[in-house]
Design brief:
Protein name: Orotidine 5'-phosphate decarboxylase
Radius of gyration: 18 Å
Family: Belongs to the OMP decarboxylase family. Type 2 subfamily.
GO molecular function: orotidine-5'-phosphate decarboxylase activity
GO biological process, one term: 'de novo' pyrimidine nucleobase biosynthetic process
CATH topology: TIM Barrel
Distance between the termini: 21 Å
Largest sheet: 8 strands, parallel
CATH class: Alpha Beta
Bound molecules: ligand LLZGTKA7
Structural class: alpha/beta
Number of domains: 1
Strand order of the largest sheet: 2-1-8-7-6-5-4-3
Number of strands: 8
Pathway: Pyrimidine metabolism; UMP biosynthesis via de novo pathway; UMP from orotate: step 2/2
CATH architecture: Alpha-Beta Barrel
Length: about 280
């Protein structure tokens, strides 16, 4: 069964890939133009040249690629991203756009077009259900709602306690569960907040998590796996920790990334029930 067949629900496709390659890692393609090795800078599309080599070296360990759109939002960047998505699909790896979108109706309908080519997206719940509806309506695409983010300021708003006694992040999780009418919703919960990860897993036992924050942000890999997965389905992401693993400006950068992806897969597999 194909993991990029959009006739199948996103989380079924992820489950297929997890069991096929025995891995739960998402590789973040945050291909900062300033960090692309010198020998690729003269390519027609340096970010695409870089990503192609990273995909070649890492795909056998990778459940999903997660390009953050921040690194592609210029004309040649969008071209590089389109090529990257098609290439990942050619390796049967789904692509999750980390775009953190949402807006009022007509604008958010336009944002949801980002899903035409990709398999899943991250969205921001701040504007409420109608701002997410066009994403949620795409039944076979994954929608990951920011819940408890990994950055230090994630606590500023998300940890506030409401009059109901819940925290803001718990309220977001409860709302997300109600919005999950097609079974295509997950939450973004950072590995840098292991206690919140644990309490959210109890709060919403059925929602898979996308867990960023291991590697460069020094989050907790054991908590990421233990609480991020539901029936062994979820995505544990590392971006810079893989694609810039050696901080290697030379031609070996892709091999170094491949070794880092394999090592992370093996590290995370120690904490899975089924590995
Ligand atoms: O809470 C969040 C939400 C998203 N991210 C994104 O994930 C990657 C992490 O990159 P690393 O290099 O592995 O630190 C990046 O695209 C962030 O924008 C997050 O870190 N935390």
């Amino acid at each position: 069964m194909n993991s990029t067949d959009t006739n199948r629900p996103f989380f079924d496709r992820v489950a297929t890939r997890i069991s096929r390659i025995n891995s739960v890692i998402s590789v973040g393609l945050d291909s900062d133009p300033n960090r692309i090795p010198a020998h690729l800078q003269t390519a027609d599309l340096p970010r695409w040249a870089f990503n192609r080599r990273i995909i070649d070296a890492t795909h056998e360990h990778t459940v999903c690629y997660k390009p953050n759109t921040a690194f592609y939002e210029d004309p040649s960047g969008w071209r590089a991203l389109r090529e990257t998505i098609a290439y990942a699909h050619g390796k049967d790896v789904p692509v999750l756009l980390d775009a953190k979108r949402a807006d009022i109706g007509n604008t958010t309908r336009q944002y949801a077009e980002l899903l035409n080519k990709a398999d899943a997206i991250t969205v921001n719940p701040y504007m409420g259900r109608d701002s997410l509806q066009p994403f949620l309506d795409r039944e076979n695409k994954g929608v990951f709602i920011l819940c408890r983010t990994s950055n230090p300021g994630g606590a500023d708003l998300q940890d506030l306690e409401l009059v109901t006694g819940e925290t803001v992040y718990e309220r977001i999780a409860a709302l997300a569960e109600g919005w999950n009418t097609h079974g295509n919703v997950g939450l973004v919960v950072g590995a840098t907040a292991p206690e919140e990860l644990e309490s959210l897993r109890e709060y919403v036992p059925d929602l898979p998590f996308l867990v960023p924050g291991i590697g460069a942000q020094d989050g907790d890999p054991e908590a990421a796996v233990t609480y991020g997965l539901v029936d062994d389905v979820g995505l544990i992401n590392s971006s810079r920790g893989i694609i810039f693993a050696g901080d290697d400006n030379g031609e070996q950068f892709a091999d170094t990334a491949g070794v880092a992806a394999k090592r992370l897969k093996q590290q995370l597999n120690q904490f899975r029930d089924t590995a």
